């Protein structure tokens, strides 16, 4: 028996795990009590990592689709050759942009995809890059680029030292925190309150986080931009603006006062569902707290005003002196400095340098939004997408209008998936290249140090020996890379570059990055290196967040232009909301997450699945009574795009007029192969979400606040 310490990389919390192994099998997984960040905490998904490693449905060897639609095994070399050959053939016939890539959520949890995918995209020469980020956090990347100069300079709430946390459209108690690495959030929120601090939650559902809060306020979905504008209005009206040291490097504040003039609390009360007095009080309390931070996530980003609303989150923090201030809205200082390295070595820095072919939507950080991926595949003409690389994603279940995405993937000339499950999307592939799973590789987190609420670093040694003849994500990417490069650089040069990369990644690369990073040589004798970090198997605590502005800004002159024209030009659209009412008919649909689930892909683990249907439609008792729906009854939920069936769960936790359904379910499409998942109930909410609803600035999907009707199933069938 051996005991290993590693971090869990299933979600951003990155909890420390203590893993006991016998004969290359996991005997036990528990929280690592000595991890400086998680201190022994872990959630049920961390324990279920064992299931991932033993899952008989997990693919371990490449598969090729036969002409009759069935699958046959193929050797690694033959599979990699075939994939490169087919991609290059498409490129020769249709041009560089005929090949696209969709990157799923797990790519951010491995050094290899984050580092090597940009190299592969460059070798392919394509701009057709899509990812889960555009159904998630693209407004945040855009604003970080516009305000701070790098899409990856993302502030986080200094949660362990704040006196007042305002949570808007996030449910960290279940999600374990996002764009905020803060394992055991429950402990952190409790200690906030224990030290006399205040937690306020704004959410159309009384969430698990709201249950811990001092105050929960319902808000009509999609109207945060109005609430936040009214809060900023109140700051000016009541002379509460006090920017602290940010005064020295922030421009454009006067323009903002003008912008919010019309947005008095009275003007927004009806649309938001929050009365004017409450808005004023929330603002005063926020401004009066010795330290405070406003933190927002999906509920704000996934709306048609994602960028303007999130911009107001920054504005609220900045005008009250919370930016870069202890207990406020701060930046981590990561040992691996992705915001700087990523920005300097890739084409991430930029906005609207090119637009999507069919709908003319601007790129953000070199990505097009996923809401237009199906258009690009299905719309004929020059530049049409003919081949796709699906990397660690399941867009059929996770991108709006999943049925059309399904049809689009089916329409491709060629599709390769790098994924270890035959899921609703990868079933469309011609070849599947399954990587080894997380504990079968050494790992170093290159991403989440940059959004951590406490500076720290950790290196993960390999825990399990993978099966013979398997490949890691790194192996697959490096092997594809030289095969693609060979076409333009020549085979000899491509193979030489391959050998050099093999020697460089990951250890020399990580070591070099650590040494030039903020905790490297500049720190003198205490300088970090990979060898030093590896001495600390529980991870290395680098201390609380430090002030880093304006030095760390990557903007011209290291200044923040708060009234950025990209945002101000979209402002009239926000103004229109004051005069246009809601249609008043039907419901607004929101989503939710469950602790024992992660997007679409952890429904095959016995440890996490079981019990009653989790994919229920929450509805307020008043609404249920008015519409004649009973608990457990089956209904049809219909949007402009389509309809799905769901089971009603009557509950006071949702706001009247709002219904709530999780995403990532609906594992009944033929041809996928995850047997436990297929036995679960529920349909995919993304079969009714709408690609016409998006934030025009960032291209982010507006999946929240979807207008739907809810009808008893018998009525649709005509009685
Ligand atoms: N309606 C609605 N839709 C949503 C959301 C919502 O709130 N509401 N949330 C959105 C958000 S925030 C996100 S991030 C997306 C997620 O959307 P996706 O990323 O498209 O979907 P996942 O379910 O995360 O699929 C992950 C896939 O990666 C594979 N995988 C796991 N680990 C690895 C690995 O180490 N290597 C490789 N190569 N593959 C791996 C899994 O087998 C799985 O097939 O969904 C979005 N969709
Ligand atoms: N257990 C679990 N953990 C996860 C995931 C998972 O699927 N399961 N997914 C991971 C991923 S990929 C991500 S991106 C993060 C997401 O992390 P979070 O953003 O914290 O997660 P959500 O539960 O989607 O929280 C969004 C909240 O916004 C609320 N909301 C919806 N519409 C509105 C609105 O218009 N206004 C306001 N103010 N609120 C609104 C919802 O009710 C919900 O409570 O979670 C990560 N962690
Ligand atoms: S919260 Fe759960 S899934 Fe996330 S890192 Fe910790 S153990 Fe893993
Ligand atoms: Mo996400």
Q: What would you say this structure looks like, in words?
A:
By secondary structure, the chain is of the alpha/beta class. The protein folds into four domains: 53 residues, Phosphorylase Kinase, domain 1; 255 residues, 3-Layer(aba) Sandwich (Rossmann fold); 190 residues, Dimethylsulfoxide Reductase, domain 2 (3-Layer(aba) Sandwich); 132 residues, Barwin-like endoglucanases. 32% of the residues lie in helices and 17% in strands. It has 26 helices and 30 strands. Strands 5-4-19-18-17-6-7 form a seven-stranded mixed beta sheet, covered by helices on one side. Bound molecules: ligand MGD (2 copies), iron/sulfur cluster and molybdenum atom (MO). The site of iron/sulfur cluster has 12 residues, from helix 1.
How far apart, in Å, are the first and last alpha carbons?
63 Å
CATH class of the largest domain: Alpha Beta
**What is the count of structural domains?**
4
In this structure, how is the largest beta sheet organized?
7 strands, mixed
Sheet with the most strands: spatial strand order: 5-4-19-18-17-6-7
Could you estimate the helical fraction of the residues in percent? 25-40%
How large, in whole angstroms, is the Cα Rg?
A: 25 Å
The coarse silhouette is globular
């Amino acid at each position: 028996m051996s005991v290993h310490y590693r971090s869990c990389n299933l979600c951003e919390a990155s909890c420390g795990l203590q893993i006991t192994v016998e004969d290359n099998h996991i005997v036990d997984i528990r929280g690592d009590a000595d991890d400086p960040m998680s201190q022994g905490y872990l959630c049920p998904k961390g324990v279920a990592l064992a299931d991932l490693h033993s899952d008989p449905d997990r693919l371990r060897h490449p598969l090729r689709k036969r002409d009759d639609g069935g699958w046959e095994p193929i050797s690694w070399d033959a599979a990699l050759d075939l994939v490169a050959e087919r991609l290059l053939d498409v490129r020769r016939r249709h041009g560089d942009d005929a090949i696209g890539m969709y990157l799923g959520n797990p790519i951010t949890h491995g050094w290899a995809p984050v580092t090597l995918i940009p190299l592969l995209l460059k070798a392919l020469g394509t701009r057709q890059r899509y990812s889960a980020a555009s159904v998630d956090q693209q407004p945040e990347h855009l604003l970080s680029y516009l305000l701070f100069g790098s899409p990856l300079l993302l502030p986080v709430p200094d949660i362990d030292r704040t006196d007042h946390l305002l949570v808007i459209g996030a449910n960290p108690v279940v999600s374990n925190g996002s764009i905020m690495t803060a394992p055991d959030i429950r402990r952190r929120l409790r200690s906030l309150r224990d030290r006399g601090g205040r937690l306020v939650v704004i959410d159309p559902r009384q969430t698990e986080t709201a249950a811990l809060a001092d105050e929960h306020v319902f808000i009509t979905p999609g109207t945060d931009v109005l609430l936040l504008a009214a809060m900023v209005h109140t700051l000016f009206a009541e002379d509460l603006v006090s920017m602290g040291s940010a005064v020295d490097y922030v421009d454009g504040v006067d323009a903002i006062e003008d912008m919010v003039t019309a947005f008095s609390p009275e003007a927004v009360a009806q649309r938001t569902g929050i009365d004017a007095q409450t808005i004023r009080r929330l603002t005063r309390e926020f401004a009066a707290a010795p330290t405070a931070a406003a933190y927002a996530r999906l509920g704000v980003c996934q709306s048609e005003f994602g960028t303007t609303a999130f911009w107001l989150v920054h504005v609220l923090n900045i005008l009250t002196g919370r930016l870069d201030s202890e207990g406020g809205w701060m930046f981590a200082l990561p040992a691996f400095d992705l915001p700087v390295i990523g920005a300097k070595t890739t084409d991430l820095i930029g906005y609207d340098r090119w637009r999507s072919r069919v709908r003319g939507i601007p790129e953000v950080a070199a990505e097009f939004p996923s809401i237009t991926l199906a258009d690009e595949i299905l719309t004929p003409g020059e530049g049409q997408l003919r081949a796709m690389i699906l990397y660690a994603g399941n867009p059929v279940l996770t991108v709006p209008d999943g049925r059309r995405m399904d049809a689009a993937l089916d329409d491709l000339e060629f599709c390769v998936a790098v994924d270890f499950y035959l899921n609703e999307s990868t079933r469309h592939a011609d070849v599947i290249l399954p990587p080894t799973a997380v504990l079968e590789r050494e790992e170093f987190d290159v991403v989440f140090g940059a959004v951590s609420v406490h500076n720290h670093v950790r290196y993960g040694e390999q825990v399990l020996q993978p099966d013979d003849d398997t490949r890691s994500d790194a192996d697959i990417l490096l092997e594809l890379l030289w095969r693609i490069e060979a076409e333009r650089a020549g085979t000899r040069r491509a193979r030489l570059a391959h050998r050099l990369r093999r020697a460089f990644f990951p250890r020399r690369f990580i070591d070099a990055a650590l040494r030039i990073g903020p905790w490297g040589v500049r720190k003198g004798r205490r300088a970090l290196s990979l060898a030093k970090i590896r001495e600390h198997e529980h991870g290395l605590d680098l201390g609380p967040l430090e002030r880093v502005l304006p030095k760390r800004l990557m903007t011209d002159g290291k200044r923040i232009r708060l009234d950025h024209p990209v945002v101000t030009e979209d402002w009239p659209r926000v103004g229109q909301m004051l005069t246009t009412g809601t249609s008043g008919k039907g419901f607004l649909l929101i989503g939710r997450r469950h602790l024992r689930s992660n997007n679409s892909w952890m429904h095959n683990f016995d440890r996490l699945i079981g019990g009653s249907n989790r994919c229920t439609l929450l509805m307020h008792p008043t609404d249920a009574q008015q519409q004649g729906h009973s608990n457990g009854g089956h209904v049809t939920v219909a949007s402009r795009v389509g309809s799905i069936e769901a089971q009603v769960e009557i509950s006071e936790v949702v706001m009247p007029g709002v219904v709530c359904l999780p995403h990532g379910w609906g594992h009944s499409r033929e041809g996928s192969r995850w047997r436990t998942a297929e036995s679960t109930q529920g349909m995919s909410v993304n079969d009714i979400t709408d690609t016409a609803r998006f934030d025009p600035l960032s291209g982010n999907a507006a999946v929240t606040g979807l207008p739907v009707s809810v009808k008893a199933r018998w009525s649709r069938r005509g009685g």
